[in-house]
What we know:
The protein is an all-alpha fold and 253 residues long. Helix content is 78%, strand content 2%. The protein has 7 helices and 2 strands, in the order ααααααββα. The chain has helices at 7-38, 53-80, 85-115, 123-148, 153-162, 165-175, 194-252; strands at 185-186, 189-190. It has a two-stranded antiparallel ribbon with strand order 1-2. A hairpin with a 2-residue loop joins strand 1 and strand 2 (189-190). Helix 2 crosses helix 4, helix 4 (123-148) packs antiparallel against helix 5 and helix 4 packs antiparallel against helix 6. The longest helix has 59 residues, at 194-252.
Amino acid sequence: xxxxxxxxxxxxxxxxxxxxxxxxxxxxxxxxxxxxxxxxxxxxxxxxxxxxxxxxxxxxxxxxxxxxxxxxxxxxxxxxxxxxxxxxxxxxxxxxxxxxxxxxxxxxxxxxxxxxxxxxxxxxxxxxxxxxxxxxxxxxxxxxxxxxxxxxxxxxxxxxxxxxxxxxxxxxxxxxxxxxxxxxxxxxxxxxxxxxxxxxxxxxxxxxxxxxxxxxxxxxxxxxxxxxxxxxxxxxxxxxxxxxxxxxxxxxx
Length: 253
């Protein structure tokens, strides 16, 4: 875990891993969406609206997966004080929030013809909306900590506490009766026809790789910003030394 604690070593890894994840993920995601849009047959019950499945499901997966990544990074910061953990969590937060918002938007579009309503306050939808608010709160905390130069531990604690919502989202359709369908994919089982399942898995893999590439891209940018700030701070301190020496000489005179 501490092998890549050194920013230089991490940047050397991210330099080739980031474009690999980003472009391969983008290719797979676009291919899966084209597959679902043009080659998958309409569903017997949902008709053409089933095609939104190939965006909605990966977005839901990455919305929850993003916060799981924040929780893991927060634990690494609080327990092992990993120097890049806070940067990783900050890098995950924004794309995680975007995918969470995409999940809610596509779910509403899907729900209108399927359920007859744009929104229903059931367990799955409500807990996913709570996750969106958690992302917004976490981003606000990290930005405030960065701006004020305070410890990122408060945001890390928030990231761990907010992780309680992830299993609630996952199990909500089992614990409470709702309009949302029960889990279609469980351990070793799938209720989805192979005509939909194969492109769906490709879409999940593609979006996950794209997500990883974006996170690495953001981590590189955050590390670069931190290095620039450190250089400017050192330069400012170096410039203050001659002024302090001159002031001492004037006082002695």
